[in-house]
Every structure is written in C-alpha cells, then in structure tokens.
Amino acid sequence: MEEYKPQSKWKNKLHEIIYEADTPSGKLFDIVLFILIIFSVVLVMLESVDEFDQHYHKTLLTLEWVVTIFFTLEYIARLISIKKPWKYVFSFYGIIDFLSTIPLYLSYILAGSQVLLAVRAFRLLRIFRILKLVKFMGEASQLQSALKASRAKIVVFIYVVLILSVIMGTLMYLIEGDEAGFTSIPRSIYWTIVTLTTVGYGDIAPQTNLGQLLATVIMILGYGIIAVPTGIVTAEFTRNKKGNEASNKGTVHLNTQACPSCSAEGHRDDATHCYNCGHLL
Amino acid sequence: MEEYKPQSKWKNKLHEIIYEADTPSGKLFDIVLFILIIFSVVLVMLESVDEFDQHYHKTLLTLEWVVTIFFTLEYIARLISIKKPWKYVFSFYGIIDFLSTIPLYLSYILAGSQVLLAVRAFRLLRIFRILKLVKFMGEASQLQSALKASRAKIVVFIYVVLILSVIMGTLMYLIEGDEAGFTSIPRSIYWTIVTLTTVGYGDIAPQTNLGQLLATVIMILGYGIIAVPTGIVTAEFTRNKKGNEASNKGTVHLNTQACPSCSAEGHRDDATHCYNCGHLL
Amino acid sequence: MEEYKPQSKWKNKLHEIIYEADTPSGKLFDIVLFILIIFSVVLVMLESVDEFDQHYHKTLLTLEWVVTIFFTLEYIARLISIKKPWKYVFSFYGIIDFLSTIPLYLSYILAGSQVLLAVRAFRLLRIFRILKLVKFMGEASQLQSALKASRAKIVVFIYVVLILSVIMGTLMYLIEGDEAGFTSIPRSIYWTIVTLTTVGYGDIAPQTNLGQLLATVIMILGYGIIAVPTGIVTAEFTRNKKGNEASNKGTVHLNTQACPSCSAEGHRDDATHCYNCGHLL
Amino acid sequence: MEEYKPQSKWKNKLHEIIYEADTPSGKLFDIVLFILIIFSVVLVMLESVDEFDQHYHKTLLTLEWVVTIFFTLEYIARLISIKKPWKYVFSFYGIIDFLSTIPLYLSYILAGSQVLLAVRAFRLLRIFRILKLVKFMGEASQLQSALKASRAKIVVFIYVVLILSVIMGTLMYLIEGDEAGFTSIPRSIYWTIVTLTTVGYGDIAPQTNLGQLLATVIMILGYGIIAVPTGIVTAEFTRNKKGNEASNKGTVHLNTQACPSCSAEGHRDDATHCYNCGHLL
Asked: Which residues form a coiled coil (chains A, B, C, D) (predicted)?
C-alpha cells in the first residue's frame, strides 16, 4: 500500500506493530501481550491466596516488577508512536492501560495505607485489554449486535423483574419476619432475587407454611420468566442469521489497522484514507 | 389542536399536565412523579432496616411526611381535573393511588395496633404506579402480546409441573421420612419445586441412596423441561417479529393523551374524539 | 345423532355422562369429578401434616370416607355402563381408578402393618385422572407432539449428560475424598448432577482448590448445555407453529366421545362408527 | 455382497461381528458389549460404597474378574481380526479399550501403592465405549453438527463469562473479605461462577449490604445472559432443520461397516470400496 509518511519511519513501524494486527510482527506483539496479560492476572490472583503469598512473596513481587516494567514500556511506546497522544491518553483503553500499570509504583507511595488493597486490585483491569484484542472477531461483533438490538426489551424485562422482587420481597418480610432471616425489606428483596433467578443459596429460607407457599410461587415464576430474555435474544439471533445470509454481499471485511492520526479502527481493506478524519492510512 | 372546552381553562391545563405526557409540562410532571415514587420506595425500605431506623428515625419520618403530602395533593388534583372523578376513584390505578397515600394518616389512628405493619407496607404499592408511567413503551407492549399469545400453553405447562411435583413430592415423603426434613407431603412438594426449578436451597436435602437417586431424576427433569416454556415464548417472539415487520404499515402511533371525560388512554395522534366515549379531545 | 342401541337406555345415558364430555350432563360430571379429585388430594396432603392430623383426625377420616364412597360408586358405574368391562379394568386409567379407590378399605385389613403408609399414598394416584380430563385440550396435545418429535434428540442429550456426570463424578471422588462429603462414586455423581443442572444444594461442596476448579468447569458446562434441550424444543415449536398454520385445513376436530364397545376416544365429529372396532357410536 | 477375501475366512467373520453392526451377529455382539459395559460401570461404582464393599467384597472381585477377562478376550479379538492392528492400538478407542482393561492386572503389581485408586478408576473409561456404540445414531450427529457450527460463538461467550467472573470476583473479595468466606481472589471467582451460573451452593454467601447488592447484580446478569448460548444454539438448530428438510435428497444412508483394512467407518450402503483407502469392502 502506497502511503504518505509524515512521521519518521521507525515511529510508523512501531505504530504498525502496536496498533495493528495485520502484519506478522503486529500479530506476534498481540500474542505476547495476550500471554503477559493472562500471566499478570494469574499473578494478582495468587498473591491474594495467603498460604501461597507467604511462601513465594519474593518471587511474586519480582515477577510483578517484570510485568509492570513491560507494561510501562508499552504505554510509553503507545504514546510515542501515535500522532495525537492525548486522544489515546483519555480514551477508554488509554485510561485502562494507565490505571493497570501504576499500582506497583503507587504501592511505595501509599505504603501501609488502607487504600493500597484496592489500588493493587487495579492491576486486574488489565483483563479489559483482552477484550480489545478480540474485539474484531466476527463472532463477538455478531453477538454484540444481537444483544444491542434486544437491549430495550431486556431493560423492560429487568425492570419488571425488579418491581416483582420489591413486591414479593415485602410480602415475604411481612409473612416470615426476623427468625427466618428476613430481617429487613432490602434483605427480603435480596432473598427474592436469589430465588427468582433460581440461584438459591439457602442462607435465608422460609420456615412458615405460608412463606413456603409464596416461595413456591416465586420459584415457578422465576423458572417460567427466564423464557422471556431467552425468547428475545433467540428471536434476534434467528433474524440476524437470516439477515446475514441475505445481505452478505453488502458487507466488506474490516481490518484491524488503526489510523495513525486519530486511532479510529475498523477500516475497509481497500481504504486509503481514514473514514473518521480523512488522514492517509 | 382545536378543542371544545367545557371545563374551566385551568382544570384543562391541570388535566393535560397530570394525565398526559405529550406536552413539556406533562413530561416534567411524569419525571418528577417517577423520582418521587422511587425515593419513597427507598424510604420505606430503609425504615425496615433496624440499625438505620434507630439512627435516622426522625429524618425518615419527616421525609415520609413530605412525600405523603405531595401524593395527597396529587390525588386531589387528579380528582379535580377529571370530569368523572368516580371512574378514576374506582379504577385500578385510582385504588392504588389511594391505598398508597393513606398509610401515614392511618398510622395515627391505628397507633400500637398489630395491623399497622401491614398497612405501612401499603406505601410500597406506589411501585405499581411506575408501571403506569411506562405502559406505553412499545417494547413492553410487544412483550405483553407475546406472553398473552403463549398464555394458554404456559398454563398447561405449569399445570403439568404442579402435578409432577405432587407425585414426586409424595414419593420423596415415603422414601425419606422425617429425619431428612421431609416432615409432611406439603413440605416434600415444596422441596420438589425447589429442586425442579433448579433453585436448590439445601435446607432440605435427601439423605438416603434411593432418595438421592429420585432427586437426580427430578433435577434432570427440571433441567430439561425448562426448555418447554422457553420454546413456547421463543416461537411466539419469532412469529411476532415477522408479523411486526410485515404489518408495520397497518399500525399507527398512539399517544399518551387521556380523554378528559372518561380517562381512556391510547388515542391516535390524529384523533379529535375519544374512541371510547366520543368526547372531544 | 341416530344410533343403534344394543344396551338398555339408562346404561347408554350413563355411558354418555361418564365417558363423554360433549353433553351438558357429561360436562357437569367432569367438573364435579375434577373438584372431588383436587379435594381428595388436598385431604391426603393435610393428613400427612402431623399438627393438622392430631387436631382434625376425625373430620379428615369422615371426609375421606365420603370421597372414597363417591369414587367407589363411580368405579362401579363405569363397569356397568361399558360393554367390555375387562378392557376398562386393565386399561391404564382403569388400574389408576382401582388403586386410588381401595386404600381406605385396605387400611382396615392391613391395620398396623408397615405397608399401610405406602398404600394410603396410592390415593394420590387420583391426580393422574386429572390428566385424563384435560388430555383433549388442544394446547396440551400441541405441547405433546412437539415433545414427541424432539424425544430422540432429548434422549441422546440426557445420555450425554449422564455419561458426563459419571466421568466428572469419578474425578471429583478421586480429587476431594471423604472429608468434603464425596464418600463414594454414586454420591459424587449425585453431586455432579446437582451441580450440572444448576440446582446446587450445598449439602456437599468441594473444599480443595483443584476440586473447586473442576466444579467451576462443571458449572459452566451445565450453564452452557442447558441451551441444547432448549434449542431442540424451540426449533420443534417454531416448525410446529408453521406447520400448524399451513395445514390447519387438513385437520378435523376430534370430540371426547368414547366408543361404548371398546372405549376408544377421539372420534371425528362426523363419525358414525368407531375407528377402532367399527361399533356404531 | 461379492467380496475379495485376502484374510482367512474366520478372521473376516470375526471382523464383521466385532467391527460392524449390520449383521444379526454383529448387532448381538454390540448389545452384549453394551450390557457388559453398563454392568462393569455399576460394579466400579458399588465398589466405592464402603458399606457395600465390606459386605460383598468377594462377589464384587469375582464379577470384576469375569468382566475383565471378557474385555481382555475382546481386545485380543480386535487385534487379530483387523489388518493393521497398530492403527487400532493407537486410535482413541484403542487406547480407551486398553486403559480400561488393565487396571485389575495392575492392581496386583501396584498392590498397596497410592496410585492404585486412580488406576482402578480407569475402568470407568469403559463408559466412553458406549459413545462409540451410539455414534452413528442420526440424532447424535445432528446435535454434534449444530454444536460445531455454534462453537466459535460459544467460545466467545464463555470467554466473556470468565472475564466477568474475574472482575466481579475481585470486587466481591475487596467488599466482603475473609469472614464471609471470600478468603482469596480465586475463591471469590469460584463463588462468582457459582452465582453467575445460578448454581448457588450457599457454602460462601455475602454478608454485607454492599456485597448482597453486588450479588444481586451478578445473579440478574447470570439469569439474563443464559439467554445468549441458548439463542446461539437455537438459531443453529432452526437453521439446521430447514437445511435438513431442503437437502434430504442429497444425503444417503451410511452403514456401520468398517473397512477390514483401515477401519474407516460410515460407508455408503452401495459402496464396494473403502472411501478412505480404496480397499474392497
């Protein structure tokens, strides 16, 4: 592809590797990133297991430093290789990248503080970056469009479920009272949702006959109305599929190239200019 | 819209604000109402949390008075602005409005009485009013029509589930007996429904081998027959969707205007007379 | 309907009332029967509740005698009014009718015996008779045909679920051992099915990390494969619906008349001979 | 069928009985095998029940020897009757057959060893052999193809569920802490999956108000997103069904004959040569 190169060559190369997944080196970079993200998420998890942390604290800390330094370098590389760095910094993924990189540095500043635990958990935000890596998978976008189309109906459904829970929960609160664990209306509503969604922990359970009768009604309701969101999404999938088959000719493949100027992604394979800012690709 | 005005102008204006949602002031009124309803429901919930009520009893009571006075005024305004007040008073939403407004007044009459708790819970009926506010959302009415169409099948389904529960529950009662918590047939049926709907509290659980074997059968049954209501509703949704797409031309938009004489709602945008009583809109 | 009458007139009349639901008296009989069945089922249930039985033992026994005598008379009437009584006696519903009528008589013969409890539960078999009363409801038969059509697929599905349960259950038995409640392979399989069907009692729950990891896999499996029976039944319903709409002209209404000779039911409205034995209707 | 017979006649006959299910003796062999597999699986299970094993240890061991000897002979017969035994030995089912036959022999070599328990469980691998016996059932292959077609979407779905679980689990870990059982992030994630899949053991349950609120969100999420795999598989089934009906003419019946040379199965009824190696059938 003939391209106009306003940036230095190595910056362009870096941009291609980091932001795009169409070249071999770009793909490799994405795979390495993917593995490192998973690895770092596992690290954070293991750290929270007391027995494990006591034995391997030093190893975990060292590995965490390795990961953090890699992500720091990657963050800097992203800033350098893009034309409008501020746009990246304040984009959703830019913020995620930043927040998930700083915890280790902050842990020295905030040492001994209470907020530290929460700050350290920020590292888990890295998991969102995986979503970015897979967002161009055709399957995911099909799922997304079906869910988007049925969004309004699902909101109405959740709305009805919540109103039902408030009413049923209050009734159970009046019927059962404190002994069975229904100590307040919010707790009764919590129990109602536990029952309606068929989770059923059993930490709170009705003891009276009337309470068990009402519980039975709630269970059958919950068992039945699960059919509603299922019906909505299925109807959307069925329609979608037909639509897809009928109109496949109308669609083109979008690649993972990102505009070097505005970072917009999802250009047509035959595009020479960014659809968003008109910059040459 | 040119209208014949038999009522005084301000009554008409009030009617427009309270009963309709097409004018800016009508919309604003609905939004304020919505927020107040949610606020008052949260109030009632917090009141039931003992620790919270002990600390903020006075604040909660004051806020409850504010809300109650607003709803009282709104109820009076509804009575004044409508032509046939009795029709409103004895309509479903009229009764809801009344019952959910009086508890605070009654609490002074019934002070110390046992019924008080139940009466206070009446305030939660306000939540039904939200349903009224959203009832013209197109999505909700689509859901409703799909559910209505599959109602007969769902009744048959629940019927079969209940018969199955009675038979299985009795069997479990005979097999397990008192030690495992199966103290009577109704309680065994309660357990069967808990299992069949895959809720599974675990407050009652089979202990014998035969009981666990039968429980396994019930679980797999419950796991399998959930497919039935789902299938019914989905088939209805799929059909509905096709119907909608085919016949969209045959439908018109209904607005939220209510007839000033008979309160009938859902007039065509181009209607000049009430479809129900013929009164000029 | 012009009919050849080989039986005495009153026997024919009786047959019409008991076996058919097309005449007013036949309908009335069915409704009375329906109420009595429900009533007698509730009686049996209440009897099993100890507190209730202690207070009202005499009343319950008297009412049970009333119900039993009615069902005895009905059984005799069925025998008299039909031409080939043996066919009825050994039919499915004939056996149900017999078994659900004798328990009270047997309770005097078996007094004090252990089997008594089980025998008394036989009265609950009456609930099957309700199924007979509703079996010609169009909705029920639609449900039935959809289920029949997907029977083979559902059997394969249950088969796979069982094999999966055996394998996963054995693995959990090896991993968890006795402390966590996985005391034998059958009990582990029981737990696996409890988990796979998303019932989750919690009476047995994995304690080790490896066990919890495997449990997670089983849960996600169970959560996912519920889609399979749902998909099967839904596809059948969708197809069925289309078929129904297309071929409604090809169907005729079947009435509830039973052949006086062979008891076959479901004759065409315009039938003059039994489709099964050729006897005049 | 006229056939070229390079092997001795009895070997050919043996091959027909063991590997094919189209002749009466072949069918009989499969049925006997099926019963023996089920029988041996039940044996292994009973052995793990302590009370049972103590009483009938000798009987169980004898029966296990009978079963093992049968499977040993069968394994040898399979080796003899096939032309390229190594292909069978290293095929999936060849390995299954071997591993599920040796445990009893190994138990004398490994006597007293710790691995023994796991080795004995290998006998349960026999259950996989049942899958082989039913693999040509048309229904199973339809299920399989529908699942295969929706595989990619289901992977994306499980992926999203896992990411959601990690995020929600970490949040719950930060909110609830040790007292409620959320002792580490992996355990919190375990709880999240228990909740999201609506299993709900109740061994770990949130105690704080904030925790219960978040749990409510997770439950409703889980209750809602079950619709997604269901929708995917259903859409696939619906499409599949249509495809099947349209193209039934394009399909031929495949029989269970296996090539005597390469063991490839699923030949056309009118085939005279193996589709895989060209050997005469």
From this structure: none
CA distance D167 to A100: 13
Lowest mean pLDDT across B269-273, D20-24, D107-111, D145-149:
B269-273
List Cα–Cα distances, D43 to B10, D47, D62, D125, in angstroms: 87, 6, 11, 13
Please answer yes or no on whether A216 and B118 come within 8 Å at the CB atom: no
Q: Which residues pair with B258 in a beta bridge?
A: B265
> Distance between alpha carbon D152 and the CA centroid of its chain, in Å?
21
Residue closest to A229 by CA, chosen among A275, A161, A136, A132: A161
- What are the tens digits of pLDDT across the range D166-194? 989 988 988 887 788 888 889 999 999 99
CB–CB of B201 and D201 under 8 A?
no
Q: Which of the residues D220, D226, D233, D236 would you substitute to probe the A interface, choosing the one with the greatest number of A C-beta atoms within 10 Å?
A: D220
What are the distances in angstroms from CA A97 to CA A46, A108, A272, C277, D91?
22, 20, 29, 81, 48
For residue D6, the distance in angstroms to the closest alpha carbon of chain B comes to 51
Spell B21-54 as b/e; 16+ CB within 10 A means b: beeeebeebbeebeebbeebbebbbbbbbeebee
- The contacts of residue B133 (CB under 8 Å, 6+ apart) are B30, B33, B34
> Do the Cβ atoms of D202 and B198 come within 8 Å?
no
CA torsion through residues D239, D244, D246, D251, sign: positive
Partner-chain contact A124 D170, CB within 8 Å:
yes
Angle at A254 between CA A250 and CA A257, to 5 degrees: 160
Judge if pTM exceeds 0.90: no
Q: Please name the member of D198, D202, D230 whose beta carbon is closest to the beta carbon of B202.
A: D202
Report the largest interatomic distance among the alpha carbons of chain B, rounded to a whole angstrom: 79
Q: For chain C, first and last CA: distance in Å?
A: 9
The pLDDT tens digits of the residues spanning B6-43 come to: 557 888 888 888 877 778 888 888 888 889 988 988 88
Is pLDDT of C72 > 90?
yes
Q: What is the SS3 assignment for D188?
A: helix
